[in-house]
User: What shape does this take?
Amino acid sequence: MRKTRVLLDVDGVLRDWWGVARLVLNHFGKVPLDLLPNNTEEWFSRHHLEEPHKSAFIKYLFDPGLSTMIAHKMASPLPGAKQLYAYLTGNFDVTICSSQGNSFCQALTEEWLRTHMPKFKSPCIFAQKKENCIGDILIDDKPENLNAFGATGRIAIGPIYNYNMWINHNMCEATGVFDMPGIIEYLDRTFLDSPEHV
Ligand SMILES: [Mg+2]
Assistant: This one.
């Protein structure tokens, strides 16, 4: 029997993107710090930047250039991320599934994973609609991704934040958010204890 395939998101699950994004936006885009969130959690609770800061957000964090490179270089792993990655690669067939929208950010993200996640294996999948990807489980922080994947009848779980606590559990009973150790406990309970798992 084949191994259970896990699709694993990067930002908000493995990488603390927004902690560094605010510093880069402030430095290069001249966006005042008080308009910028401190971390992923704050970002999702008030992520509507007005112009001209909205354009700076794309220009300095996503367009090819020095500021985007620096943001990727400086971003740290989230607490518990290395342990989660090691656990997953030891027990499941893991594929990174990230929504990085251009090839420059995709290459930088792969480089970040190579640097920070021991035993990282490429290739990654880069997709906006993760529910269309082949996999048994999605681990992601974005509520829209969790709901859409869960609605296909597959398991969608992720680290818990204020912005995803409201995910629709009725969509699929296997959709849920936990703290980092809770994700591992859930997978242990659901898969590794089952006789079908290899
Ligand atoms: Mg994410």
Notes: The chain is about 40% helix and 15% strand.
